[in-house]
Amino acid sequence: MVRVALSACLVAMLAAVASGDSLILTDGRTFTGTVAVEGDTVLITLPHATLRFSKSAVERIELKATPEQQFRKKLGETALDDPNALFSLAEWAGRNGLDRRAADLYALILRLEADHAPTRRVLGYVRVQKQWLPIDKAVEQARGMLEAGRRAALLDDVLPALKGAASTREQHNSIAELLGQTQLRSRLFSAAAETFAALAKKLEPPAAVRIAAIATILEEHADGMYVLREAYPPTARLLGGGASASIQPGPASLSLPKVLEAALRDLAKKQIAAGRKLMDEAQKLERTDPDPAALKYAQADQAFVRADALVAGIARSHRVEICRRRIASIRKDADVEARKFDELWGKLGVRDMSPQALREMVRRMMHLLDNTSTDLGKALAIAKRYPRELVLEVEWAELDLTTVQRKRTVLVKWLDDTK
Amino acid sequence: MGLGAIALAQSGSASPASPAAALQAALESLHAHRYEEAESVALSLATDPAGAMPRAWSIVAAARQRRGKYASAAKAHRLFLAFTDSPAMRQYAMEQIRVCQRAAEKPRALVAPSRRLDAEARRRLARVGQATCTESTDHFVVRARNAELAKLIAAEAEVALDRICRVILAGQDYPHSVEINVWADREDYRKHASDAPEWAGGSFRYSVAGGIATRRIDLTQRLADGRFAVVMLDRVLPHEMCHLVLQEYFGDTACPLFLNEGLAMLAESEIDNGRVALAGKAIAGKARISLGGLFIRQRYDLDEPATFYAESFSFVEFLHSRLTVEQFGAFLENVKGGCTVADALQRALCVPASESFVGSLASAWEDHAVAQAQYLEALGGLAAGQ
User: Fold this and answer.
1) Same domain, B244 and B286
2) A4, A331, B239, B348: which has the fewest Cβ within 10 Å?
3) pLDDT of residue A156
4) Radius of gyration in angstroms for the set of CA atoms belonging to chain A, rounded to a whole number
5) Contact B88, A229 (CB under 8 A)
6) Same domain, yes or no, for B258 and B344?
7) Under DSSP, is residue A53 helix (H, G, I), strand (E, B) or coil?
8) How far does Cα B275 stand from its chain's mean position?
9) Quick one: average pLDDT of A245-255?
10) ipTM value of the model?
11) Which residues constitute the domain of residue B240?
């Protein structure tokens, strides 16, 4: 009887604590898991099942110490001036869900020994040029090293360390691109080609298009020599300030960043030329075959998208031109509907017609307004993709949409009033 | 191989002796303007009996070309051409051969045709006879009351047209016939030339009636004092002809006024230093028309026509001298296609559109225009001091 009372008392305590690991039943059976109490039932969660028992069936519950209790115990046993011992405890805390305790301990370790490498690594730091930096800053630092020509240090130390510390996909991709660039500038052309080809598979467009193009350029120019057909940057002669720094037409090493940029621009130019050809074909078809023309415009836009992926913004004005042409085409359709509407509007009050015929005509007029409105909406959506360049088209469409809406309201009111 | 080349070859990824590293060393020398070194390394690679690297001929060619050794550069380009299969590379090599050939020729200074005329010839050209003489060439039918003048105008018209189409308009064709009428004096000109402005000494006309296009240029033979109008030969003829060619080239598209006038002035057979000086002074002073303003000026809103013309010439000459023939041709095509001047230029250069482009262009042009004017002023000062 006393035993049962004790057991009940323990179970009552458990309702508050709700944690334990050994459940001993009155029949002698023992289970190990997480114990919870729900009313008159005791639950134990095992790795593959949850068992329920009546409180009366429970002999006793042996609670395991909570992680927090265990932590306190371990902390008392740890030398607080020993970074390695503290590090072991911090790792244990981290593994047992005591992230805050672990963070506190890591901070303590770094106060004791700022260069404690295991702690720095756990915290996502990377050692670059004798400095521990968070990975994003370390990647920036590595980019600076690349610009400063410290390629050997990058290839031998920094990039492997960065690779080891990277945790996100973006970080891995940034580091892979940095590796490819470093290999390229170190004239390791085939290694760079492989790095870029592998990276291209992991990326999404538009970045994938550019990186794949770099890989192709390097594969096609395995000796690292690229022949520029015009000076690069192309604005150097016109705008000045960089003529001496520009690359002259002729052979040059792909290890120079400007030469690679020039090669990418050459590919973008090809895409633009292909797009322009399609636009010319579309223009010829526009009046007679609008659907094939629209298809050609879409294909041209795809070519321009590829060009923009290779050199950001290089084909923007061509894409704007496609939009302008599409808007002009939509506007023609809208004008046809608007003219039909105006004709009917002109007949209102002039021709004798029955109330029924008049209502029918007003309904037709509303239908024409709806068509116009749809066209204007399409034009507006296209124009809004390039609001800076197509500001007039946006204003035109918005103004006309307002007018159409106003006219529609008048017609609807008339229909309602004459019901 | 020079020391620098060896050092570079050794710093490369491949072994010091490897052809790949040597090729990179040659490219590095070329980039660093060490042309002799580049040529030497590349030549060894291109002619290596153990395994020649024909692509190295392009380095040899470029190194020679940059040193001004055009004949041997062309030879190297030909060798590169012989070994390359790539259409783009073949085109590059052929372009460079042409560049070398042009560079090897002594550049011919632009000389106004009137400079070849002595006082006696000018007197003869000022004579006005009774009968109208007609002279025909491939593109022109010239009518004047002076046989020698008709012949001279016909010959110079062909020269001017060739320059306009080939040099200025980047290889445009002009397969048409133009009627050129040379009237004795201003009064005669005003009586016969249709639509001739009061102040003009020459004009052009392009009209289409009944499906037939008429192309006509009217000129004035003599100045008010009876002397032969050399300005007609040197400036008015090529100027009006350029307008005529542009009118047909642009068709329904409006050619911006600054471009139309700038190109026409560029077509004239000698640079007018007065314009260059005026443009520089205007830009440096308060009378300047900004580049943006220049782009949109129309004939009816020219408050300062002299400044407008001077700046238009200066800017168009600047563009023409800084762009390649292909880029300038593409620029004109883009303007013809309806682009703004800024868009047309950025498309021609094939660069991403930038809002700061016009500002950068304006500064580059203004620096150029002011420097040109200062140069002329310095020359004037030198001449005065002598």
Assistant:
1) no
2) A4
3) 93
4) 37
5) yes
6) yes
7) strand
8) 17
9) 92
10) 0.84
11) 108-250
How many domains does chain B divide into? 3
Provide CATH code, domain A2-62. Answer: 2.30.30.100
What the block records as the tokens of B87 is 């259409």
Residues of A in Cβ contact (< 8 Å) with B319: 238
Interhelix angle B70-83/B56-66, nearest 10 degrees: 160
Does residue B347 belong to the interface with chain A, where contact is any CB pair within 8 Å? yes
Residue finishing a domain among B58, B75, B104: B104
Q: A310 to chain B: nearest residue by CA? A: B352
Residues B286 and B230 in one domain: no
Taking CB atoms and an 8 Å cut-off, how many pairs form between chains A and B? 100
Residues B316 and B246 in one domain: no
**Over 60: is that where the pLDDT of B304 sits?**
yes
* Percent of chain A clearing pLDDT 70 (strictly above): 94
Tell me whether the omega of the peptide bond preceding residue A233 falls within 30 degrees of 0, making it cis. yes
Question: Which pLDDT score, from 0 to 100, does residue A290 have?
Answer: 85
Residue B172: both structure tokens together: 């445009």
Of B88, B104, B120, the domain-final residue? B104
Structure tokens at B274: 């007065």
Pick from B266, B352, B275: which is nearest to B306 by CA? B275
Place of tokens 């022949």: A227
The amino acid at A342: D
Res. B2: pLDDT tops 60: no
* Residues B379 and B329 both lie in one domain: yes
Helix, strand, coil content of chain B in percent (nearest 5) = 60, 10, 30
**A317 and B346 in contact by Cβ < 8 A?**
yes
Q: Which two tokens stand for residue B341?
A: 């001047």
- Please state the three-class secondary structure of B14-44 as a single string: CCCCCHHHHHHHHHHHHHCCCHHHHHHHHHH
Secondary structure element (H or E) that encloses residue B143, with its range: strand B140-144
Among A239, A312, A313, beta carbon nearest to B361: A239
The residues with which A211 forms a beta bridge, in sequence order, are: none
